[in-house]
Amino acid sequence: MLDKNVVKSVIDGFHLPDFNKATIREIVTIANKVEALTGEKYVRMEMGVPGFAPDKIGTKAEIEALQAGVASKYPMLDGHPELKKQASRFVKAFIDVDVNPEGCVPVSGSMQGTYASFLVSGQCDKKKDTVLFIDPGFPVQKTQLLVLGLKYESFDMYQYRGKDLIDKLESYLKKGNICNIIYSNPNNPSWFCLTEEELKGIGELATKYDVIVMEDLAYFAMDFRKDLSKPFQAPFQPSVAKYTDNYILLISGSKAFSYAGQRIGVTVISDKIFHRFYQGLADRYTIGEFGVIFVNRILYVLSSGTSHSAQYALSAMFKAACDGEYNFLETVREYGNRAAKMKKIFMDNGFHIVYDKDIDKNIGDGFYFTVGYKDMKGGELMYKLLFYGISAISLDTTGSKQQGLRVCTSFIQDNQYDVLQTRLAEFAKEN
Ligand SMILES: Cc1ncc(COP(=O)(O)O)c(C=O)c1O
Question: Which residues contact 104 (CB under 8 A, 6 or more apart)?
Fold first, then answer.
């Protein structure tokens, strides 16, 4: 067991004014420091780092591209043509939506894709200067808006599902100040998945109020309750793109393809939005076309394109997945197996799942889940568990109004389930 005095002195040393608001990186640093001082390992559940090696299809293609000399060449701003082509195929194969390769633009991770998308869509129309988050969500996206000087509104969808969600969204959209709606699906941190009816409702509102939906598919097809791994065959990854032309999809190489280190993803801009003229853009740049500004102005100034060799890797993985030669979900399905085991251990020790349902279905098992303990506040729970060698983050930082923690399944090792059980049992006995 950890020396509790050491844990306390490390936490106190951070002088955090409000522990509830401790960021992921602060928890990481606290846990690292305690580990270094005590020689004991935490059961690490705070950070969403992919836990598996990428498939050789990607690394081989990238190595070959490097050997062929792409490192010395600037990539095209709008991306390597083969990746654009394969991304468009991938969207057809796994979402069943048609989009022109032109609108499939490689980015340095979804992170850059959301930043650039917020930026351009926030400049389209002076009256629409606010992004609407369907929370809980990925906290860094709000930091992006802070950096950009854009406003945001948000609500916790915990009590708004089905028709209530659509009504709630409409109450914001009616005001006329919203440029984007953003959510992740499956959701970080809660792992909820929007239903087809909810996506249809969101799509219809986006069309009616002329707003762009940014659908963050960082955990593409990772709702393991269904097998979404078969190309050009139902079931498909559910998407708002089926219900509106006002969409931007953010597809990341990081989680589904375990390619986080190379910072690669694709921003998929609908054909309609890509070519749409916005007066706000024309006033600022003289050119008013969304896609042109996104690529030739914004990506140009941000990073002048995306790592050349990584584009070859993602392109090869998309191609193999579309050709039915590579099941990209096979390895990452293990996150779901881990979640099932971890949830059971938490529940056996008096914890409950906070976001537990997708309307009438139990939430799936995947990369994250959320836990609460009795009526303990999220920050207090996060603080206390650190003394028992368990690190996770409070839901507070994610825009959630619920009390509890986000647990990430990516780091747990096979030999740590027993440790988790022992530590949670000890915690439960003393709390
Ligand atoms: C919801 C969500 N969006 C985006 C990202 C970032 O993706 P990328 O690594 O492609 O920038 C993450 C990573 O944790 C995430 O959870």
Answer: 79, 83, 84, 87, 88, 91, 266, 267, 268, 269
- 110 in contact with ligand 1, CB cutoff 6 A: yes
CATH code of the domain covering residue 392: 3.90.1150.100
State whether the beta carbon of 260 lies less than 6 angstroms from ligand 1: yes
Range of the domain at 359: 4-40+332-430
For 268-306, write each residue's pLDDT tens digit. Answer: 999 999 999 999 999 999 999 999 999 999 999 999 999
Same domain, 167 and 213: yes
What's the number of CA atoms in the CB half-sphere (13 Å) around residue 1? 13
Nearest atom in ligand 1 to 253's CA: 10
Nearest-5° Cα angle at 399, 397 to 400: 100
Q: What's this model's pTM, rounded to 2 decimal places?
A: 0.96
Count of the separate structural domains present in the chain:
2
The helix/strand/coil state of 172 is: helix
Question: Is 48 part of a structural domain of the chain?
Answer: no
In angstroms, how far is the first alpha carbon of the chain from the final one? 16
In the reported structure, the alpha carbon of residue 231 is separated from the centroid of ligand 1 by a whole-number distance in angstroms of 23
Mutate to test the pocket of ligand 1, among 24, 108, 110, 406 (most ligand atoms within 8 A of CB): 110
Ligand 1: residue whose CA is nearest its atom 2 = 218
**For 97-118, how does the pLDDT look when each residue is reduced to its tens digit (9 = 90+)?**
999 999 999 999 999 999 999 9
**How remote is the CA of residue 112 from the centroid of ligand 1, in Å?**
10
309 and 368 together in one domain = no
